[in-house]
Write a structure and sequence with these properties.
Immunoglobulin-like; about 25% strand; nine-stranded mixed beta sheet; elongated
């Protein structure tokens, strides 16, 4: 068998050598095909084979093959065209004749003339200019050579679309003396890299657009003039082309495959990226060098893979520092920029749609407050904005973000000046629909915003900057704007801004709550309350009587002074001797009470957090009014369950805590510690209480066992009817319980979330729905995940002690299997067994 295999290989070698020899005699051979054949022979025989790599044939044209007019070649003669059409070998070089008197190739001279096999063009050294569209629309031209060497060629100018859609795939060596590249001259080919000559003087737009370029070297580029488009304001109409020095021209690399600016070599003399210069490429990240300070229209638009952009402030290896940054319209539109975007110092402005249609979640405009163009961040899922300055907002800059919750303004350094191209006034205001369709509730905004009216071409409009946001409280979609001084913290309450006609915002609002309670802490229902409100507006005092409900979110602002009478007591109550306990609320000579809603007094005005990702809150004032309950009912004793699994006996004595009301002192078990205590042998019957809200059918307690140890207190035989709102079953069904007070209600999410209810010792009593408004909670039996933990305290208050914020509670993960060490031992044993098995099989 081994001998047969050797003979087969020898036979194959002989056949391969004969075949190779025959090919070289009959047709032009190609180095690529010859190499492939040699490789095949070597692979199948194991022997070294040398095969001669021959080049493709050359078709040498003569002067008679061309038509000439003066100094310009105008095309092929009939004989020349016939020769070109007769070419059948791919890769044939078509060599133009030397020694011609003509030095130029005319407009469209050879357009659509090469229709057969892929060919290469070799031009003589004498050609100085190639006219517009000279070789355009020839998909058969794969390469072009300008003269015998780059130094010998006299070529100075390549006209517009000279090689447009010509099929060029081999990279070009430009003559050293080339000076001018005109519009689209190499557009729509298959070039993969390009190097420009150092002596270039003029380069126009879209020169290498629509190729497959991944790398580019722009040479010295220190004295290059570029044609830059100028547009009519407010439209896409080009009105002029202006010569600009040392800017990458418009569209030069549009629709290529460049993935990084590091693959583009350009000197620090280049200061601008022309219109659409790198649009529709393959960038994944972008570090803009400090010497690039202007990005013109659509510079990097439609880079669908571009996720990260940063703006360098100093170029590495040089001392060049950024002078300024200007970003024109649509520069980064429809990319995939995600996460946080930060702008450097000296950012001047960004045009309309400049970052529209990305995935930016937060943005910091830096300390210089740039002008932000119309719809410049439209459609991004932005949740937070930092260092915003209202002087430079054109219309709808953050329109339709759908996620915006937090805005941090730049308070100290207001700017003034023209606000853009839509004729808005110079006033410091917030522009038309600036934050439309976000999730805004409250904003602290700078006091230098002195008007909420804007001017478009002389016509005044009330700002609708906050349309279609959820608003600061339930039941209204008005965003709360809190006016703040230059320190970013002190509230300005001069009411200099009129919001009486505003539909989507309210300035400096305070939610005022009147809460009435009796001496036992039970809520007392209030009717409407008449309040006299005094407000200072631009230095003038204005008084107004407001008929307020118990919760008022519309009539009061920071700085207001409010005066009210204690409402008449309902039946069964009388006004307490000291109905208002807050020392900041003073009694007036006429027997009424007044207080100023001073934002610096936290006893009067408190910040209420929204939670849920909001870093802002709203202002709230709670005024408690006391009434005396005339019922003979004593205060309700607090009783809590001993065990969440076995409900505690209502009214039972807590043996582990003798100080608890109702417990028996261990040293004297026969004597009650308090009047309510019950003797172990003969429990006393407490006075009949007023029936509270039904606690949920407590189970009948068993007769307590008299302790053998006299130091242990015992429980009574016949406990009294429970007088507490703490649940006695776990869980009861559809029975709400109302604590006397709820602590940290602002932490409770909207929508009656489920919380894990625990007692003061941390023992779980079960899961319950909690109402943040009135504190009621109802135990549930379903399997919803709790949003947090709420504790029932001894004073019959419910305290929210932990909020999971929609995430799984933190803690140790449970073990889900046996020892990992045992598993590894078993795995090792299995591997050893398999190894032994395979060794036996191999042998």
């Amino acid at each position: 068998m081994r001998g047969k295999l050797i003979r087969h290989k020898a036979c194959g070698l002989a056949i391969a050598l004969v075949t190779t020899s025959s090919l070289s005699l009959l047709t032009p051979s190609y180095s690529s095909e010859g190499s492939s054949l040699a490789g095949l022979v070597a692979k199948n025989t194991g022997l070294s084979v040398v095969v001669k790599a021959e080049t493709a044939p050359t078709l040498a044209l003569t002067a008679s093959d061309l038509t000439v007019s003066g100094d310009t070649i105008t095309g092929f003669s009939a004989s020349g065209l016939a020769k070109v059409n007769a070419v059948t070998v791919t890769g044939t070089s078509i060599k133009f004749p030397t020694g011609l008197a003509a030095t130029k190739i005319g407009k469209s001279a050879f357009s659509k003339k090469f229709k057969n096999k892929k060919v290469k063009i070799e031009l003589p050294d004498s050609i100085t200019e190639i006219g517009d569209s000279a070789f355009a629309s020839n998909s058969a031209i794969t390469a072009v050579k300008f003269g015998s060497t780059p130094t010998s060629s006299k070529l100075k100018t390549i006209g517009a679309k000279a090689f447009y859609e010509a099929g060029l795939a081999e990279n070009i060596k430009f003559p050293d003396g080339l000076e001018t590249l005109k519009d689209d001259c190499f557009a729509k080919n298959e070039l993969t890299s390009v190097t420009l000559p150092d002596n270039l003087l003029i380069i126009e737009g879209r020169v290498f657009a629509d190729n497959k370029i991944t790398k580019a070297d722009l040479g010295k580029y220190d004295k290059v003039k570029t044609k830059m488009r100028e547009y009519k304001v407010g439209s896409n109409n080009v009105i002029a082309d202006a010569d600009t020095l040392n800017v990458i021209p418009y569209g030069i690399f549009w629709n290529n495959q460049i993935s990084s600016l590091k693959d583009v070599k350009f000197p620090t003399s280049i200061w601008g990226i022309g219109e659409s210069a790198f649009a529709n490429n393959k960038f994944t990240s972008l570090e803009l060098p400090a010497h690039i300070h202007d990005i013109f229209f659509y510079g990097f638009k439609d880079n669908k893979l571009l996720k990260k952009v940063s703006f360098l402030t100093k170029d590495e290896g040089t001392n060049f520092e950024r002078k300024y940054l200007q970003i024109d319209r649509g520069s980064f539109q429809n990319c995939a920029i995600e996460g946080h975007l930060e702008f450097p110092t000296k950012t001047n402005q960004m045009g309309g749609f400049s970052f529209a249609g990305n995935k930016i979640t937060s943005v910091d405009f830096g300390p210089d407050a740039p002008l932000i163009g119309y719809q410049s961040f439209e459609g991004n899922p932005i949740t937070e904005i930092y260092n915003l300055n209202s002087w430079g907002l054109e219309w709808k800059p953050f329109f339709n973000t759908d996620a915006l919750k937090n805005i941090n303004f730049e308070y100290k350094n207001p700017k003034s000046g023209e606000r853009g191209t839509f004729g808005q006034s110079f006033d410091n205001t917030i522009s038309l629909r600036a934050f439309n369709k976000g999730l805004l509730k409250s904003i602290k905004f700078p006091a230098y915003v002195d008007k909420m009216i804007f001017d478009i071409n002389g016509k005044k409009y009330i700002s609708n900057a906050f349309l279609e946001n959820p608003g600061w409280t339930e039941g209204t979609n008005k965003v709360a704007l809190y006016r703040v001084a230059s320190d970013g913290a002190t509230y300005v309450t001069d009411n200099a801004l009129d919001d009486s006609k505003a539909k989507d915002y309210i300035i400096n609002p305070v939610l005022v709550k009147f809460v009435a309670k009796d001496q036992y802490g039970n809520a007392v229902t209030l009717s409407s309350i008449e309040v006299e409100r005094t407000r200072t507006i631009k230095g003038a005092s204005e008084a107004k009587t407001v008929t307020s409900t118990a919760v008022n979110q519309a009539d009061f602002k920071l700085g207001d002074k409010i005066k009210f009478a204690i409402p008449a007591a309902p039946e069964g109550y009388e006004i307490a001797e000291s109905p208002v306990s807050n020392s900041a609320i003073t009694k007036t000579a006429d027997g009424n009470y007044e207080v100023t809603l001073d934002p610096t007094n936290v006893e009067v005005v408190k910040e209420v957090a929204y939670g849920d990702g909001y870093k802002v809150g709203y202002k709230e004032t709670v005024i408690e009014i006391g009434y005396k309950n005339l019922s003979p009912e004593p205060p309700k004793p607090e009783v809590k369950p001993e065990n969440p699994g076995t409900p505690a006996t209502p009214g039972a004595i807590q043996p582990e805590k003798p100080s608890t009301p109702g417990a028996i002192t261990p040293e004297s078990p026969s004597a009650p510690a308090t009047p309510e205590a019950i003797k172990p042998s003969e429990p006393a019957k407490p006075s009949e209480p007023v029936t509270p809200s039904t606690p949920g059918n407590p189970t009948t307690p068993n007769t307590p066992v008299v302790p053998t140890n006299p130091t242990e207190p015992t429980t009574p035989v016949n406990p009294a009817t429970p007088t507490t709102t703490i649940p006695t079953e776990n869980p009861p069904t559809n029975v709400p319980f109302t604590p006397e007070r709820i602590v940290n209600p602002n932490l409770i999410p909207e929508g009656n979330p489920v919380f894990n209810i625990v007692d003061e010792d941390g023992t779980s009593l079960g899961n319950a729905e909690v109402n943040k408004d009135d504190g009621t909670y109802t135990f549930v039996k379903d399997k919803r995940t709790p949003k947090g933990v709420a504790k029932i305290r001894k004073d019959n208050t419910l305290e929210v002690v932990k909020v999971f914020d929609g995430k799984t509670p933190q803690g140790k993960l449970p073990r889900t299997g046996g020892s990992s060490e045992e598993g590894l031992v078993l795995l090792g044993a299995a591997m050893l067994g398999l190894g032994a098995f395979f060794r036996r099989k191999i042998k």
